[in-house]
Amino acid sequence: MSSYVPWNFHEPEPGMFNFEGDGALEHFLDLANETGLLVIVRPGPYICSEWDMGGLPAWLLNKKDIVLRSSDPDYLSAVNSWLSVLLPRLRPRLYNNGGNIISVQVENEYGSYHACDYSYMRHLFHTFRLYLGDDVVLFTTDGNTDRELKCGSLQGMHATVDFGPADDAKKAFDLLRRYQPTGPLVNSEYYTGWLDYWGGNHSTASPQMVSHGLQTILEMGANVNMYMFEGGTNFGYWNGADYKEQYKPITTSYDYDAPLTEAGDPTEKLFALRSVISQFLPVPEGPMPPPTPKYDYGVVKLQKVGDITDFLDILCPGGPIVTRYPITFEDAKQYFGFMLYRTRVPWEIPDMTSLSDPFNGVRDRAYITIDGSFTGVLERDHVRMINVTGSAGDWLDILVENMGRINFGSFVNDLKGLVSNLTLGVDILTDWLVYPLNIDGLIAENWPHMHRNHIIMAAQPESHTGPAVYTGTFKTAVTGDTFLKLFKWTKGQVWINGFNIGRYWPDRGPQVTLYVPGNILSNREMNNITVLELESAPEILLIFLIDRPIISKNDHGF
């Protein structure tokens, strides 16, 4: 088994470490050991993984001129602090110490990064040796090109490559031998599928192609780690993004068309791969465990609680930040989620006038409301201008959503929020009130289901447009996995029993449903659902809990 360790998940604030609950890394490794799994640990500090900022903490960007993934002193200071906490937790679990960790990766695909800083890689190598000792196998992973292997490999660490079934395995391993003349040939990321972007198609790779590629590798006597073997989910705000001529955020589902699905169920691809592996190694006897039961819990009716601007006093109890010009999420130390930027309309605009993002500074989507009326959306790289009207003194509210930081390439220092000025007509908008919104913290305390902080469920309002909060409840007799379908809802975020199950955007797709693991549900108490719809809710406020996923808009079930 191969497992990343995301730095930003375990150190959400400088010096604040989390190894409990979902962050219980040592417990996870011990469970793997109990089941007989050997583990390859990939602790970065950069991991990519289609994870926000490649696992690097966004608070690093508080240093405006920091050079990430380099020997920049500010960056190395933060890395040293992190590794001094993480690596001693791994050492007792190394294979040579009686544990199940057989190797540890240093950095990740560093040859794909522009810096090519050998001093940085040497620093990491010596730091890993300091904390883990001389006996553990340290290795690097890079793409199968000369440039990537040249910048990503380092003497003293075993070099490996990554590639998929469409690539020429012999050519890749011949190149690897130039940088790793001895020892095993390893493909440390053999791609069994691929990731999905919002607005793209669902990626697939046929079982025949993936199994044939695996057979080719094994017939060469090489070693392979499959990526992904089981799909996953980008719960909360943890998805990353790519930048390929434009910003491309990654979906909540990380099913990856993997041999085991997002819900952990076997697929045809798993059986095809198992058949190949059985020609080289013994495989467990007996039937494959069946898929776990999935449940259709039926229809849940929601109720509108109110517009997001109705709750600024409790979502931002410390009050707004007053600033002449917009500030970023990082300036406000709000690293995920949403911030609201508020100013006054400076003059009468009876005729349609452009509200513009002239420098492409919306990171990543901005939901515009004037005097309480939803006006439209500005979107990074896509929508740079909308036309608006209003009266002098009206509140102009801009709710900005961080859609996930870039996780690969040269643009991982991906600031969020309004990173440049907006203009109304030809005038720069100034004099902002900026509200960092603690939505997750409040929902974790069962808001708005508990009538605390003097918030009372509103009567059904007329308007379903613009950023607003909706809630509902449902009962279950069992607590099995299910899938949430938001038919005719537009875009937003969903929490169930306080757990953020991720972003939905069925209008853009390809993903339609959200995976709901059964362990967050209750069969003893009412289950609470909270929806933050950002654009437009349907006239009839219904959502559906169904027994199968729809991860492509082309699925006839949509």
From TrEMBL:
This is Beta-galactosidase-like. Residues 2-279 form the Glycoside hydrolase 35 catalytic domain. GO terms for molecular function: beta-galactosidase activity. The lineage of its organism: Eukaryota, Metazoa, Chordata, Craniata, Vertebrata. Residues 467-523 form the Beta-galactosidase galactose-binding domain. One of its GO terms (biological process) is carbohydrate metabolic process. The keyword Signal applies. The keyword tRNA processing does not apply. PANTHER family: BETA-GALACTOSIDASE RELATED (PTHR23421).
